[in-house]
Amino acid sequence: MFSFLDMMNHYLGYFNVNVKFKNRIYTVLGLLGDVYLFYVAFRWLANKYYIRGSLIMLAAIVLLYFAIMNIFFYFTKKKPPFDISPKIERFMGKTFGFDPQAEAEKKEREMTRGRSVNNIPANGFFDQKKVLPGKLTVSALQQMNIDDLVTRLQQNNLLDLDYSGLSERQIYQQLKTENKPIYATGPGALLPYFELQNQNGQLIVFAGMNQAEKREIGQITSVGLQPISEVKDRVKLYLASATLLGGPFKVMGRNQPIEHDQPYTVSVQLAYEKKQEGQREERRQRSRM
């Protein structure tokens, strides 16, 4: 019987089965195993091996209790009236699935991340109705600058590649429900320093740990759905944000999450302001000279 249960558990691992459905299968198999234990216990008692038979009977009764709890949990939406798990949790001094050390480390990471975010300089607040995404074209040298910045961020504890503190089980469940990659950087990390410069008619983005260490990380070629060449005479553009994306990420494999890697990228948001007619005319005259 136990060999059969072990075999079922082994073969179920080959399929991407919904977690709740898989637990229902395990509950049914557990009940079958419990029935076998009751049979063994009665056979021992019938042959007057009372101590062994009683011990096996006691184990079968305990397992039957937990099997019933699983039936309530996985097959119904009702709470069992005789659930003793809260008492067991109080007796053990912690909640099931709770790791004090892991929780303490997670809180420390959150506090460190919070302090880091508070120390990151910002380019100010802009009206979100006047903010559009920009397209950043990156050369090989500029990509190297981005990668170097990522290294510096990690060295200064400004970037945690910890999947937002999610455990492997939480990552597994999220991938099952949302079916989209989960990045180690989480939703992204705002760069400590960034600025926009106009160089020979090109809008170049600089970023770094601070203003003294800034380097080129790309050229803005479009804002919204329009090329820069079509809008630069009509609006003034400001760099509202520069967010680090990409890097390690996890997707759902056959049985469990698997990790891949991709180059780091920077997502930019541009705030715009319409130019006055006089400013546009002055710009046209300068272009003729």
Report the count of strand segments: 11
* Count of helical stretches: 9
Ends: how far apart? 92 Å
The chain-level mean pLDDT equals 79
What fraction, in percent, of the residue positions are helical?
40-55%
Shape: elongated
- Please, how many domains? 2
Using brief descriptors, characterize the structure shown.
9 helices; elongated; 8-stranded antiparallel β-sheet; 289 residues; membrane; 22% strand; transmembrane helix; alpha+beta; transmembrane
Short description:
With 289 residues, the protein is α+β, with helices and mostly antiparallel strands.
Tell me what the structure shows.
Helix content is 47%, strand content 22%. Strands 1, 3, 4, 5, 6, 7, 8 and 11 form an eight-stranded antiparallel β-sheet that branches. It has a three-stranded antiparallel β-sheet with strand order 2-9-10. The protein has helices spanning 2-12, 19-46, 50-75, 85-92, 100-119, 140-155, 168-178, 228-231, 277-288; strands at 131-137, 182-183, 189-190, 193-199, 202-208, 215-223, 226-227, 235-245, 249-252, 257-260, 265-274. Helix 2 runs antiparallel to helix 3. The chain contains nine helices and eleven strands.
